[in-house]
Amino acid sequence: MSTERFERGAARLAEMGGDIDNIVAPLAEVAPDLARFVGEFAFGDLYTRPGLDLRQRQLATIAALVTLGDTERQLRFHINAALTVGLTPAEIVETIIHLLAFAGNPRVFNAMLVAKSVFADRDLLPVVG
Amino acid sequence: MSTERFERGAARLAEMGGDIDNIVAPLAEVAPDLARFVGEFAFGDLYTRPGLDLRQRQLATIAALVTLGDTERQLRFHINAALTVGLTPAEIVETIIHLLAFAGNPRVFNAMLVAKSVFADRDLLPVVG
Amino acid sequence: MSTERFERGAARLAEMGGDIDNIVAPLAEVAPDLARFVGEFAFGDLYTRPGLDLRQRQLATIAALVTLGDTERQLRFHINAALTVGLTPAEIVETIIHLLAFAGNPRVFNAMLVAKSVFADRDLLPVVG
Amino acid sequence: MSTERFERGAARLAEMGGDIDNIVAPLAEVAPDLARFVGEFAFGDLYTRPGLDLRQRQLATIAALVTLGDTERQLRFHINAALTVGLTPAEIVETIIHLLAFAGNPRVFNAMLVAKSVFADRDLLPVVG
Amino acid sequence: MSTERFERGAARLAEMGGDIDNIVAPLAEVAPDLARFVGEFAFGDLYTRPGLDLRQRQLATIAALVTLGDTERQLRFHINAALTVGLTPAEIVETIIHLLAFAGNPRVFNAMLVAKSVFADRDLLPVVG
Amino acid sequence: MSTERFERGAARLAEMGGDIDNIVAPLAEVAPDLARFVGEFAFGDLYTRPGLDLRQRQLATIAALVTLGDTERQLRFHINAALTVGLTPAEIVETIIHLLAFAGNPRVFNAMLVAKSVFADRDLLPVVG
Questions:
Q1: φ/ψ (deg, to 5) at D120
Q2: How many Å apart are CA B2 and CA B4, to the nearest integer?
Q3: Of E12, E27, E48, which one is at a domain's C-terminal end?
Q4: Residue F73 needs a FRET pair 20 to 30 A away by CA distance; which of B39, B103, C94, C125 works?
Q5: Within 13 Å, how many C-alpha atoms sit on residue A12's CB side?
Q6: Statement to judge: residues B64 and B115 lie in one domain
Q7: Are F79 and F98 members of one domain?
């Protein structure tokens, strides 16, 4: 099933601290093609494009996930990835606070508690601005 | 409190593998009229209309719930109902994958894990395309 | 860090049955400025304005939270606050039912179960219309 | 096609300054049943319930529509209805401003321009707080 | 720039009554890669999969677009495509009405007016159930 | 009515190529306090914080607005501001394309046409990657 685009996506995901098996395994019995599409398209096609570096991409991704809502699982992964590619905890916190103007308090408050939990797991608390 | 429309809705719900008591009972002390409206309007008026069969309705319902987000409870019920009215696990999986183009990955991924859990409860894994 | 606007917000929150420390404490290590902004702006600037009383504000707040989705934490707080400022359980239930026309069944059903849980905690069940 | 619930809804709508024909006519060739359902359910069942007066219902409705987005047509109607049932321009403005905390600036700003347009049509500008 | 996946997507789109040039041309000066991704992924990868026929896919697509909101442009295209692949006007109308239970009246009402406009352009009014 | 926070916000907005009068004037007769809050809080408090530079803030803002939907007016302003603070057309295009994975095609396609229109107004077409 593996394609060149999928391999490229898996490699990009690894640079972000992720493991393609964590997408492939839970979908194996229900929708292996979904895992393939995520690997090929999201990580293989989109995340490997030039034009924005990975820190910029994680900034945009976090902003989108906070705004969308019902994305705790995704925020947890992408905040971890943001740290791996070099965004600081303070930059992530600042991005979420910034969204008070656009997404409203509930989205921001919920996302900040996810960020806190990720930072705690990585022993990054307290965040120093 | 029971009306003809409500009885018709309860019967329709039963065809879908549901039990109107699972709507009535949890709302009994807080909002019995909400249970009545859901029975009368959603299941009695809308779900009993001609023009689309129940498999088409469950296709549309699942697509709406995936897109809306924060609907795990409803997806669990309506994926079960979809199976009961004759959609196959493969058709349900395919519907959710299709929404990658319209609702984005987070909605699709979360919904697929709900589908997997429903299929596991009914001993329907692995899904064969 | 405390400002006049923040103190005013904390006082308003107290009138609503809340405690600013429940916002400040969980954010202390991750984003103390977010707690300050919520205190200053949402509760200090907006919630203290004349023109609507607190019961009207809680009506509008609950309608917004139900519609937004993924707001269980906020609904729990604001339904409690609605009771504290004088809305009856029946008025809160009625507001949520009203939203069937605008936000769809899933949002309404999920919110009603949160309301039921809040009412149960305050020994307010059954709700009498 | 007219039912008792529909007639009751049409009467309620008239109290709100609306005209059921403005719903029936544009849908006549495409979906007359949709007009019937809106008349019967939204206006006949929901809007005629006791427990909240029409000013409270319009407060909740406006809050829901602002938060939902892509509702200019509905906001225009329901802000007009809010004025007809006795909410003042200042109360409507205050409700929209209140939502800065929950729905974010873009939703609030767009809705306020709709309110301004409705007030201008009714010669209610400037709004005095 | 053309790939096998893109060619397959363009062919699929043509079966749906669309023309890939209507995606390529407006994006040519701003984001040709976006046109390529839409052709390759949405139409080439997703829309050509077995497991659901095109009528089922258009049912799901319309349900998703109605629920998402702010999708008039997309609804116009996909309602046209739904007709081309064999859904009847009555089935499309019925799908939109069905969503009253899940997406709320404003989304349904706005979508129905788009459907009416598409049907009028194709001389398909009045719709006979 | 002018406060230190408002003046700071107006100055920040000017750095972004905006003019506070374009917010103040249209709201003057309907909701001058809304203009004050936007100036004080969004531009005065949030946009002047350290921790993220203006290019990072505009990246996050655009991602949030694309995802939220029904934000054409805001996208038009903030894409212009993004250019003013130094993001290139190619970076803006890339940010919008990136969101295919998170917000779905309709949000991305609509936003790209807004970007194209802004770039055309500033004679920045074609965009060179």
A1: -60, -45
A2: 7
A3: E48
A4: B103
A5: 23
A6: yes
A7: yes
Chain F residue nearest residue A40, CA to CA: F101
Closest by alpha carbon to E92, among E110, E106, E111?
E111
Q: Which chains form contacts with chain D, at 3 or more CB pairs under 8 Å?
A: A, B, C, E, F
Shortest Cα–Cα distance, A124 to chain B (Å): 26
ipTM: 0.97
For all residues of chain A together, what is the average pLDDT?
Answer: 97
Residue A17, domain member (yes or no): yes
Nearest C-alpha of chain F: how many angstroms from A25?
Answer: 20
Query: CB-CB: which of B102, B105, B106 is closest to F106?
Result: B102
User: Which of B5, B40, B45 to mutate against chain D (most D CBs within 10 Å)?
Assistant: B45
Instruction: Taking each helix axis as running N to C, give the angle between helix A72-84 and helix A54-68, from 0 to 180 degrees, rounded to the nearest 10.
Output: 160
Structure tokens, F45: 């408090």
Residues of chain D with pLDDT under 50: none
Q: Which two tokens stand for residue C40?
A: 């200053």
Tell whether F19 and F67 lie within a shared domain.
no
- The pTM of this model reads 0.98
Residues B40 and B95 in one domain: no
Residues F25 and F64 reside in one and the same domain:
no
- Residue A66 and residue A108 in one domain: yes
Does A1 score more than 70 pLDDT? Answer: no
Residue E84 lies in a domain: yes
**In chain A, how many domains are there?**
2
**Statement to judge: residues E58 and E106 lie in one domain:** yes
The per-residue DSSP string of C58-78 comes to HHHHHHHHHHH-S-HHHHHHH
Q: Is there a domain that residue B127 lies in?
A: no
pLDDT (0 to 100) of residue F1: 56
F69 touches chain E (CB under 8 A): yes
Distance, CA of A97 to CA of A107 (rounded, Å): 10
Domain that holds residue C83: 54-121
Which residue do the tokens 């606070």 mark? Answer: A97
Sorted by sequence, the CB contacts under 8 Å of residue F124 that are 6+ apart come out as F83, F89
Asked if the C-beta of D28 comes within 8 angstroms of chain E's C-beta atoms, the answer is yes
Round to whole Å and give the CA distance between A106 and A112: 10
Q: Which two tokens stand for residue B75?
A: 């997806």
What single-letter amino acid sits at D106?
P
| Torsion angle defined by CA atoms of residues B12, B15, B18 and B22, in that order, rounded to the nearest 10 degrees | 40
**CB proximity A52 to C under 8 Å:** no
Is the distance from CB of F55 to CB of F75 less than 8 angstroms?
no
Q: How far is CA A128 from CA C28, C37, F51, F55, F96, in A?
A: 11, 18, 11, 22, 31
Contacts of residue B69 in chain A, CB cutoff 8 Å? 68-70
- Residue C97 near chain B (CB below 8 Å): yes
How would you label F97-124 residue by residue, b for 16+ Cβ within 10 Å and e otherwise? Answer: bbbbbbbbbbbbbbbbbbbbebbeeeeb
**The amino acid at D95:** T
Has residue D128 been placed in a domain? no
CATH of the domain at D83: 1.20.1290.10
- F39 closest CA partner among F68, F14, F71, F75: F14
Residues C68 and C15 in one domain: no
Residue with tokens 């809040």: C118
Which residue among C69, C97, C105 places its CB closest to the CB of B42?
C105
3-state SS assignment for residue A41 = helix
List the one residue out of E91, B90, B37 whose CA is nearest residue E115. Answer: E91
For residue B1, name the pLDDT band (cuts at 50, 70, 90): low
Q: Where are the beta strands (DSSP E) in chain E?
A: none
Taking CB atoms and an 8 Å limit, are C103 and D52 in contact across chains? Answer: no
- Note the pLDDT of residue A2: 79
Distance, first Cα to last Cα, chain F: 46
- Determine the average pLDDT of the residues in A105-120: 98
